[in-house]
Amino acid sequence: MSPSTTPPTPARAPRSRRRLLLTLGAISVGWKVLVLTLGAAVPKWVIDDGVGALPSELRPYARDAKASAARLWNGPIERHGVVRTLRVVSVRRVPGAGASDAAARRCGGLEARVRAYTYFAVPYSEARVVCDSGVVEYRVFRPRAAAEAKEPAAPPPVYLRGSD
Fold first, then answer.
1. What is the mean pLDDT of residues 96-101?
2. CA distances in angstroms from 120 to 12, 27, 33, 82, 111, listed in the order given
3. Would you say residue 4 lies in a domain?
4. Is 113 left (phi over 0), alpha (psi -120 to 50) or beta?
5. For residue 40, what are the contacts with CB-CB under 8 A and spacing of at least 6?
6. Would residue 117 count as lying in a domain?
7. What element of type H or E holds 66?
8. How many domains does the chain have?
9. What is the pLDDT of residues 145-158, one digit of tens each?
10. What strands lie across the sheet with 160-163, from one edge to the other?
11. C-alpha distances out from residue 152 to 113, 131, 148, 159, Å
12. Which of 9, 52, 73, 106 could crosslink 78 through cysteines, CB 3.0-4.6 Å?
């Protein structure tokens, strides 16, 4: 038997095993830190806040709507972990809201839709905000038929949280 193929002595086997376990543990922790760090950074790099794309007269309302929507995702896990960035998708005038809805009258009949994104810029949910109150809709993707129809179809059932 050559010296290079000698079996490990009983004293060397635990050290070798310990070194292997430490190496595997370091690799496991290292790739998780790398993935979570990149995952948290990507939404800020890729997605802007959407306010700059709006007409100048709607930008102040869009900024307020984004701040109001950020308060809607108020669970500790959502606030500190899941929701990485927000984007104002649209601001529109609500037809016929002038006399019927007091909140819409306060804001000039404006309504905003704000979408939340999670790690790696994956859409999480969407909020509909009127003035300083809103509703979080956990169903982000609408059926294609409703999106293509000229008259909006009745919305599918959604889970709601927040105040109206």
1. 54
2. 44, 21, 14, 11, 28
3. no
4. beta
5. 84, 119
6. yes
7. helix 59-72
8. 1
9. 554 554 455 445 44
10. 85-93, 110-117, 123-130, 133-137, 160-163
11. 16, 23, 9, 19
12. 73
